[in-house]
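User: We ran a pulldown and think these components assemble together. Before we commit to crystallization trials, I'd like a predicted model of the whole complex to look at. Sequences follow.
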Amino acid sequence: MKKIAVIAILLAVAATAGAKEGATVRSIALPVVETPLADGEGKLTVMSNCGSCHSLDYLVTQPRLSPAAWTAVVEKMRKVYGAEISDADAVAVASYLASGYGTEKKAAVGEAAGKGPAPKAAAAVSGEASFRKYCNACHAGGGNIVKPALTLHRKDLESNGIRTAGDIVGLLRDPGPGMPKFDEKSVPEAEARAIAEYVLKTFK
Amino acid sequence: MGNTTWGGARLKDILAMAGVKPDSREVGFNGMDNPPAAKVPDFVKTVPMDVSLRDDTIVAYEMNGKPLLMLNGFPARLIVPGWYATYWVKALTEITVLSKEFEGFWMKPAYRIPDDPCACVAPGGKPARTVPITRMNTRSIIVSPEAGTSLRRNQPAEIMGIAFDGGYGIREVVVSTDDGKSWGTAKLGKDLGKYSWIQWRYPWKPGKAGTYRLMAKATNAIGESQPSGRLWNPSGYMWNTVEKTEVTVR
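Assistant: Here's a predicted model for the assembly, 454 residues in total across the polymer chains.
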């Protein structure tokens, strides 16, 4: 069989199950990775319950969560992943995570650098501001990072049957594959229309 | 994250030796690892037939020209270049060809994304349909200078980093030193192949003292790029938002 070689990047999406010692003759010493965690009540409970299956560095490097979101994570670990965490420990783990790695108050230890800016206060309805808030992630400069050919420039819009502000609002409400839906609850009519007019005016 | 030369046998050659029936749909992979707790399912992954038969999908037994080490998956592991590492099953012991979609835990419900080209839904929302996570999206990372670095005015300060995608190759990396207002093209380093990361460099000589936000944005050969804001999905996968590195110039 012919041997081939490829250079490829290995990028983990999440921690997977680690190796476990079995009845093999050979064994290796697994490297110990210690993550410096924020001090607080429940720290050891977290280290023993969570650290026995996966590394703890995502706590330090990933975004902070609300108390409700942390409780949901702990429940997911128990119910979906089968983690054997007692009811009392689950409460202690969620409470430690919410205070050490929560959104409500910032802990000094383990803060990752370079996280996104704090959300701005709600501004008046401006097409440009709303475009930046809702659309710019994928349509900066009128482009399209998901479907590069479908830009917001008039020619591309028209070839897709979109001519008026009303057409654009319709697309926000019912976008089809590739784009999240923006309903009236998240983007009210006036704001949607302001976005549409901004798009038509800006990307000619 | 690592960038490595993998050597091994093509999966398609192994499958051809074993003989694959026409109604085959997926190939399943299991390794020697066992779950850490009794109720945790064994880690088994499947790859669709077309991807299993690609020339570059290999069962590797070498890493950088040497036998695999234990922690890297000795004696052999699956390599699906361009796809996320969840498929790169280590210490392979079983390869099973299946005639229907496998629904083991680590394929469903785990490791799934919204069935949508952006792999996203409105923040907090639930996708109507999900599919397994597969190909890596386009991303760039500023390696140097690090956030919080203090630089000197009128001194050359090269910005360096890496970029990668899911196997089409990086066409361009642009860099901004003014919080995204203007962009310049970075010089790409040696092309090690379409699955490898590529290094890039951008010469910079800040003339004024102050705080600067540095950004890098990559585009791959088919025009896929990076969002400048957040794209949300329930598992937090495939984050490739353009990141900002803040430095001070004195």
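Residues 14-21, 107-123 of chain A have pLDDT under 50 and may be disordered. That may be worth checking against your pulldown data before setting up trials.

User: Thanks, that helps.
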